[in-house]
């Protein structure tokens, strides 16, 4: 009897020229060399993305998948298809490789700063000033009003944005707001799924493309919660599910991995939101005093 389930033959072909000759001297895959090797064979839509990346590699490493797709005149799935055709798991993996091609060193700057302290201070100053000009005071007022009336506030963030999420939840708790920070994506999803109209869910993601945070806001929006995105990218996946967007100024290359500018800009937004909220909470002063007294014995 003929076997209906036949194992596929073991591949015997050698790696293509694209795969064999597209690594940098340190062994990392070179994004630009892969593009050049494949470009002539790409279908028109993938070719548009490749042409844009080749012409603007320094810009692409700072873009979201949404921004690149818009600039190239394609849909986001086309960008993903190109990245996978080039041997990368997705757009973020491609950007990391592209950063290795474009940047000579992590954190390089054109401002002339040479010592680490001056460079860090410059990054902080730029983040504070940039965020100050980007934030919409009216949006802060609307978010503060929603928090003041909320039955529960869930704050979600991954990696360094998780630190900011905890900071925000702690500040809200000090003034009597039922706020919970979620750095575990599974617990964030559960929290979002149990939200309803009248609740608030805040997602912090510098890139606007952190899948777990995007999915958390998507779930919360579907449940009718008031959703807020704190992000550097106004045109990014997370903003599709945010009723309000609070913008930060923190450009960061993929290899930077949590530059201080990202954290500082998020903390500035949090502090501005907190100060906007306080006048809306009649008992805030008393609660601040009581919560301060509650930890007196924890300090010398």
UniProtKB/TrEMBL annotation:
Residues 143-283 form the SIS domain. One of its GO terms (molecular function) is DNA binding. The keyword 4Fe-4S does not apply. Residues 1-29 are annotated as: Disordered. Residues 29-105 form the HTH rpiR-type domain. The keyword Translocase does not apply. One of its GO terms (biological process) is carbohydrate derivative metabolic process. Keywords: DNA-binding, Transcription, Transcription regulation. This is Transcriptional regulator, RpiR family.
């Amino acid at each position: 009897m003929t076997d209906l389930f036949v194992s596929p033959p073991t591949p015997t072909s050698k790696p293509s020229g694209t795969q064999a000759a597209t690594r940098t001297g340190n062994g990392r895959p070179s994004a630009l060399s892969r593009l050049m090797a494949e470009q002539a064979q790409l279908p028109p839509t993938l070719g548009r993305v490749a042409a844009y990346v080749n012409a603007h590699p320094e810009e692409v490493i700072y873009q979201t998948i949404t921004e690149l797709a818009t600039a190239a005149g394609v849909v986001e799935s086309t960008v993903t298809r190109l990245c996978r055709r080039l041997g990368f798991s997705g757009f973020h993996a491609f950007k990391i490789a592209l950063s290795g091609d474009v940047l000579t060193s992590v954190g390089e700057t054109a401002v002339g700063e040479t010592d680490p302290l001056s460079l860090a201070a410059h990054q902080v100053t730029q983040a504070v000033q940039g965020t100050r000009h980007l934030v919409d005071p009216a949006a802060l007022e609307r978010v503060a009003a929603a928090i003041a009336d909320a039955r529960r506030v869930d704050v979600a963030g991954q990696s360094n944005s998780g630190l900011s999420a905890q900071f925000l939840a702690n500040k809200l708790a000090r003034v009597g707001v039922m706020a919970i920070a979620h750095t575990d994506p599974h617990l964030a999803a559960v929290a979002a799924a149990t939200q309803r109209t009248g609740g608030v869910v805040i997602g912090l993601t510098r890139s606007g493309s952190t899948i777990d945070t995007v999915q958390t806001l998507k779930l919360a929006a579907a449940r009718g919660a008031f959703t807020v995105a704190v992000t550097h990218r106004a045109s990014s996946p997370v903003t599709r599910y945010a009723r309000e967007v609070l913008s930060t100024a923190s450009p960061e290359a993929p290899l930077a991995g949590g530059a201080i500018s990202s954290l500082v800009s998020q903390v500035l937004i949090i502090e501005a939101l907190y100060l906007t909220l306080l006048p809306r909470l009649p008992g805030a002063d008393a609660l601040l005093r009581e919560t301060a007294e509650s930890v007196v014995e924890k300090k010398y």
